[in-house]
Input
Amino acid sequence: MSKIKLLNIVGARPQIIKSSAISRAIAHNYSQEINEITLHTGQHYDKELSEVFFDELEIPKPDFNLSVGSAHHGRQTSMMITGIEDVLLAEKPDCVMLYGDTNSTLAGAIAASKLHFPVVHVEAGLRSFNKTMPEELNRIMSDHASTLLFAPTNAAFKNLMNEGFRPENSPPYSIDNPKIYLTGDIMYDNSLFFAELAERKKADLIKDMSLDRDQFILITIHRDINTDDRNRLEAIMTCLRGLSEEYTLPFIMPCHPRTMNSLKTNLGCLFDELKNCKYLRIIPPVSYLEMTLLEKTCRMILTDSGGVQKESHFFRKPCIVLRKETEWIELVANGTVKLADANPGQIRNEFAGFMNPGIDLQYPGYYGDGKTAEFILKEILLFIGK
Ligand code: UD1
Ligand code: UDP
Output
């Protein structure tokens, strides 16, 4: 039996992490049926945003790296489209697998759909209903160029139906007759798989960082609305410093280079002060296993990340989201994610509330059974007729 050829397109940190769930499922269950090749656009290129994940998550190194690097959205996306098109024409995959909502996702969707290669979109249907967010345009356009769409939540599935996708479509599926699925979340597959490993492989991390379990706060910030708006970033950072001193708890912030650049260039004086804070610690980005352990062992998470929000839920930690809206609305409805935007008063209130919740917070299983990657691959094989 000949194998199908699946082209994975990744580019940014969370996509490399997500794709590892698919690679692992192929290696464990479908190595006879699926030949996976990976294209890295080079959107993320620093070692700690890219290479570290290939090493740590034991995924095959990319077969192609376009090395596009950083640029304005149009320029960056167009360079990706050109490079992806060349690879598609040479490799002629049976399908193209895209993850999430980055410029790399959009470039893959445009290049593949224009050449009539079927697009499989993992994490389809998520919407913030805020089109000034670059990811929102990427999601909408990628979904509408896809043939198989895997929505990780009820809300995402409903969003697709509201945009005209029909669950009753029957095979043969195509870009004009797409198939939408309600699945779990492959990030949950990963968190389940790596949680114990993180404890074992990174056993000394908490001690080495002089942290106590359940006695520190974990922070990530990287969204353009927060990094590129000096006032928002200043408001958030000043608030975090204040809270860390008031509660005398370590606040650990693995810092995306975009945020680090903005702290240095836009908030130089404040950044100098932050470097000398007793409790707030700004550190370089950490590896996935380190992040998993920090998430597992912290008291609470403050973030503007999509992935970290969900991981807060997987590891049963309350989470304050430093945005006005979220795509993961079930978490807000559940009361364990609070939207505080960049508003210091709101951040403080939500923080105080989560420090003393007064009730047992609940973390229902919204994101599947940890076998979402297997489900997706099974459906791809059926689609391609194997
Ligand atoms: C991108 C995605 C975002 C995702 C995030 C994950 C888009 C539009 N945004 O945002 O959806 O949540 O990745 O982390 O696709 N930089 C470095 N080193 C790197 C990469 C970037 O220093 O390896 C700096 C550069 O100054 C660059 C800036 O970060 O200009 C932004 O990088 P970019 O990939 O454009 O967007 P992210 O903010 O990383
Ligand atoms: N992450 C990591 N190291 C860090 C920060 C985040 O490994 O220093 C992981 C995190 O555990 C999650 C993913 O990166 O799996 C989320 O990516 P990011 O926040 O960059 O993007 P988003 O999910 O918002 O698109």
The first helix runs from residue 13 to 30. The chain has two domains: 4-185+368-384, 191-355. The two ends are 9 Å apart (CA to CA).
